[in-house]
Amino acid sequence: MNNKIINWFRYASPQSFYPLAGRMVPWFWALTAAFGVVGLYISFFVAPTDAQQGEGYRIIFIHVPASWMSMFIYCVMAAWAGLGLIFNTRLSGMMASALAPTGALMAFLSLWTGALWGKPMWGAWWVWDARLTSELILFFLYIGFIALQSAIDDPRRADKAGAILALVGVVNIPIIYFSVKWWNTLHQGSTINLTKAPSMAQTMLWGMLLMALCFWMYSIAVALMRARAIILERETHTEWVKQLVEVKS
To answer: What is the pLDDT of residues 135-169, one digit of tens each?
Structure first.
């Protein structure tokens, strides 16, 4: 058991993680395509038309997974940043940096698909609803994290500053999740609950879950690719990167 733990710990080194990430990327891209094709087919061709919202409700198959991923990625990013702050590991900061742009993209998709959904349903592109406002704050937290790291030349100092911002921003995640319960908002409550039966047709549920898996696999694939690029950029002075560049050239 101890040997297995030691073997896993060796992947905390950028040099060991780089080839591992390279082997995993194609698999996650394949899963992204598989879940995406099946999820989109069920979402747009199999799931029934909603009795109240008509065909326009189908945007939830993009909006809801993007919203879930925007929150989940932030938690993972903050966890990596926190590990880097505590243990002073180089890879942790690199992973946090690699996740931030994808998280920002998911928050952006959540906001814009929400606006496209809200216009026909609520009659407005935007309202200062508690959930919408807290999701907008999440988007700004991602942008702030990226901007803060870019503004500091020393990568290690940038990682530490970004980690503090990421950990402080975690408080916004439960606010987003519980906002529809804590305040009287236009935004509808959760249709999927771990303690209750889902309030939607089974085909709708399967479409949403498959699209969520598609977004999840996509996020991992892109984050691993970006992490590899960051490793090469930051470790360019090391002998193993120089040898790698020589082999590729």
So the answer is: 999 999 999 999 999 999 999 999 999 999 999 99
Cα separation, 180 vs 169, whole angstroms? 19
Q: Within a domain: residue 7?
A: no
This model's pTM is above 0.70: yes
Range of the domain at 221: 35-45+58-248
The total number of structural domains that make up the chain? 1
Contacts of 216 (CB under 8 A, 6+ apart): 69, 72
